[in-house]
Structure formats: C-alpha cells, structure tokens
Write a structure and sequence with these properties.
Blueprint lengths: L1 E2 L8 E7 L3 H9 L7 E7 L6 E5 L2 E5 L1 H4 L2 E6 L1
Antiparallel strand pairs: 1-6, 2-3, 2-6, 3-4, 4-5
Length: about 80
C-alpha cells in the first residue's frame, strides 16, 4: 500500500481508500477518485506540487495534500 503522493512518474495503481477530512474526501469523490479506480501518475511539477494523474480516462491535477489522502495498491 502506498499513498498517491509517494508515486514516481509512470507508476500505476488501484485506489483502495480515501482518507482525510470530509471536505477533501467529498471533493476527491466528486472528481472520480474512488476505491477501485485505476490511476497512473503522468507528471509531477518541478517542485512536486501539483501532480497530474490519468484516472477513468481523463487527466486530473491534484495538490500534494489531496494526493496524500489517497491510499493505493501499486500495480507492477
């Protein structure tokens, strides 16, 4: 298990849970970040924030604090 914020560019995984305060969880769920969804880290900004992931067929930019709330299982 690994947080989405810890991914290296090119890593893939499956979302297992979304933690954090209710406001952040609701925002992530509304964007499609839900358990069972496959995720791919496409890009990381030079200073590490934000990151761009491919999720459910579209690109999504997340802040590092949001990505820390997403627990995933890495796919090799």
């Amino acid at each position: 298990m690994k947080k989405l914020s810890e991914y290296e560019v090119g890593e893939r995984g499956v979302i297992r849970s979304v933690a954090g305060e209710q406001k952040i969880r609701r925002r992530l769920f509304d964007m499609g970040v839900t358990p069972g969804a496959k995720v791919y880290l496409k890009k990381r900004a030079p200073l590490g924030d934000p990151i761009e992931v491919t999720l459910r067929g579209y690109e999504l930019s997340l802040r590092k604090t949001e990505a820390e709330a997403v627990l995933t299982e890495v796919i090799k």
